[in-house]
Amino acid sequence: MHKIFGIRHHGPGSAQRLLRALEQWQPDCVLIELPEDCQPALKWISHEELEVPVALLLYNPQHLQQASFLPFAVFSPEWQALHYAHRVGIPARPMDLPMAHTFALRDSASNLPQLQLSEAPDPELVLMLRDPMHYLASLAGYDDSERWWEHTFETYSDDNAVFDAILEMMTALRQEGLRMESTETLLREAFMRKTIRQAEKEGFQKIAVVCGAWHSPALHALNQYPAKNDNALLRGLKKVKTRCTWVPWSYDRLAFQSGYAAGVLSPAWYELLFLHPEQQGVRWLIRVAQLLRQKHLDASAAHVQEAVRLADALAALRNRSTTGIGELEEAALAVFGQGDAAPLQLIQQELVIGKIRGNVPAQVSGIPLQEDFEACIKSAGLNKLYRSGADKEEPKKLDLRTPSNLKASHLLHRLQILGINWASPVPVSDKVRGSFHELWRFVDWTPEFIIRLIEMGMWGNTLEEASLHYILHLVQQEDNLSLLLQRFGEVLKADLPLAVGPMTKRLQELGAQTRDVMGLLEALAPLANILRYGNTRQTDALAVRELLDQLLPRICIGLPAACRQLDEEPAREFFRLLLEGNRAVALLNEKEASNLWNEALVGVMLGNGTHPLLAGIATRILLDKKMLDPEQAGTELSAALSRAAGGSDAALWLEGFLHGSGQLLLHTPALWGLLNEWLGTLPYEVFREALPVLRRTFSKFTPPERQEMLNFAKGDGLIKKAMEFNFDPQRAQLVNPILQQLLG
To answer: How many alpha carbons fall within 13 Å on the CB side of residue 649?
Structure first.
């Protein structure tokens, strides 16, 4: 015979009742609503390192988008049923339709009958069928169906009688709902009945059937569902290959907020309900006080006692036999927060959802790539972040001079190449010297990353091999030089030397065809840094040298033309790249490279149609390098200020020319005089047009520079210069009589 135990998925009350009922009834076989093809993974159920929350992952290795997670927590009835069977030494078998059939069913349109006879179902009936438990709970005035479940069925003294009552209730609910079941549900229930019949044929006398409460009527009276009908329904079903493994889960993922359809509102609270059913309210409020104290907020034992009394009073007023999470939250808000929700929001994650994360034995890893990932995590010193979750507030700092940190950097960059964004690089502060520092901001490891890791297993059995083959695959398809150069940087940071040769060849091919000087300039600075300072990632720099020898001449040849006929936005991007390129060439400290670069800057300075901002910075760089003398610079300045294009172009030229320091004007009176004369002759409308650019330019100078320029503008500095060169004492004496008369 078989007995139906209809449960609420992830219901702590259901789990407690189920355990007591199984102990009392003592079955010789347990059938559980789990896909049949997860049977091989159940052998790990007793392993000491398999710590909930965890999930069974079933997936199609040939189509990884077809994947299904079946999570378990300590308060999941299915988890407790599996452990009960192992503890007493009886078989525990999954009885649901294999995911091999389910994936195939979802992937193609099935010709099986839908048996949906109601063309226009009542909206309330649809709501009931979507979540019958929530529907009944709402009718009874509950927001939480689990609390309604406990309050309704915990009054029974006989645990087996509870499940009989559940069966009766579900039978009544499904009298109308059966006609609206989907093909998938009908197939699942037919397969579960077939599994029950098979267990009876094998001679088991007391078969415990643990299933979702909704399915219990369809599995109870087998004589109402002839075996030949079930076999006919299941005959000829398509199937795909599936694999199954265990993966770590978390309370975050188990919560409704994660998007998991069978989630629960508050996993941390449900765990407390399961482990401490008699003292859950007091323990929860004690936890509130502890967490608030950790946040340096006022919370005492007296607060706990007062909140317990208030929560119990609220439950009594609502005619509820036990105090629920709703009453406890309201009491905590009133007592601890004094009506202000802000203090409790600080601890909401830990208090209601929880930060617990499960663990899976290393031997359970489904594919070689996942095993290598686990080993790399340990050797790189990132195991704590992987197992315990990330600190989202503080990024992790890596010093690449340390071997373990260098391994961590290689690992994280390889994961980035594979599209597993567990960690993202954070820009290092300008105050940090050297190129051996990295900052990474981590997020919690999620099951989606596992799916991606499995998907990338097709490219290799180790992270190094998979990232190498995958990046080479991307390189062969990449026709954008700028993106290819970014890939090259990723390869260097990920320590994939075998990819450097093919990528260099591909870069040379694209470089010979491209006119994208901006993309080439982007690569100049990082490549020069590697050659000048040495590579902290210990990558062979010979390939970098060869690549630079190819890129720099192309940059210098194409630079003057690339700076012409630009709008302001791309010109400002080129402005940044010119400065970075100039620093990169200076780092190389090679005469031939410097000559090529300087010739290109002369072309930018003198080119017709060059954007004035770029012509200005090119002139300034050449002046600083003493490739121009002050008189030549003055000539260029005079030409720029006298052009008929308008005041805005002249102001942009000045912005580029004066970039970085105002000392040039302070120590070159001729340039100051030219600028002063130009400003004095501008018409009002032109001056108003040029003023924003001039203000932006001068605002970047240091306060002492601006003060000295102010003195010059007032005339003090110019008077002193004039006294040194053009002062005439006799002419000055002519004004004395008038001054004496005015001053009395």
So the answer is: 17
What is the per-residue pLDDT across 101-128, written as a single tens digit (0 to 9) for each?
999 988 764 444 443 433 445 566 666 6
Query: Taking the CB of residue 407, how many other CB atoms lie within 10 A of it?
Result: 18
Q: What is the DSSP letter of 441?
A: E
CA-closest candidate to residue 49, choices 253, 268, 246, 250:
246
**What letters, b where the CB count within 10 A reaches 16 and e where it falls short, cover 115-151?**
eeeeeebeeeeeebbeebbbbbbeeeebebbbbbbbb
6 strand-pairing partners:
211
Residue 539 exposure: Cα atoms within 13 Å on the Cβ side? 28
The sign of the CA dihedral 259, 265, 269, 270 is negative
- pLDDT tens for residues 690-700? 677 677 777 77
| DSSP-derived 3-state class of residue 692 | helix
Location of structure tokens 């964004």: 421
Beta strand pairing status for 67-72 and 54-59? antiparallel
What span, in angstroms and rounded, lies between the C-alpha atoms of 318 and 312?
A: 10
Asked if residues 269 and 380 have their Cβ atoms less than 8 Å apart, the reply is no
**Whether 448 contacts 469, CB under 8 Å:** no
Cβ–Cβ < 8 Å for 81, 208: yes
Phi-psi region of 4 (alpha: psi -120 to 50; beta: other; left: phi over 0): beta
Cβ atoms of 587 and 532 within 8 Å: the answer is yes
Q: What is the pTM of this model?
A: 0.61
Backbone phi, then psi, for 246, in 5-degree steps?
A: -95, 140
Residue ranges of the chain with per-residue pLDDT less than 50: 109-120, 155, 178-179, 257-261, 431-434, 536-538, 716-725
Contact 212, 33 (CB under 8 A): yes
CA dihedral 565, 567, 572, 578 (to 10 degrees): -10
Residue 635 has phi, psi (to 5 degrees) of -65, -45
The conformation of residue 70, written as its DSSP 8-state character, comes to: E
pLDDT tens digits along 617-661: 888 888 888 888 877 877 777 777 665 556 677 778 778 877 766
Beta bridge partners of 35: 96
Burial class, 647, CB count within 10 angstroms (exposed 0-12 / middle 13-18 / buried 19+): buried
Q: Which residues contact 342 (CB under 8 A, 6 or more apart)?
A: none
Q: How far apart are CA 737 and CA 743, in angstroms?
A: 10
> Within a 10 A sphere around the Cβ of 592, how many other Cβ atoms?
11
User: What does the alpha-carbon distance between residue 76 and residue 461 come to, in Å, rounded to a whole number?
Assistant: 35
**Chain CA centroid to CA 94, Å:** 35
Helices marked H in 607-735:
612-624, 630-642, 647-657, 663-666, 669-680, 684-699, 703-714, 716-725, 729-733
Whether 540 contacts 500, CB under 8 Å: yes
Crossing angle between the packed helical segments 325-335 and 280-294, to the nearest 10 degrees: 40
CA–CA dist 80, 18 (Å, integer): 8
Edge to edge, the sheet with strand 423-426 lists 396-399, 437-442, 423-426
> How far apart are alpha carbons 4 and 196 in whole angstroms?
11
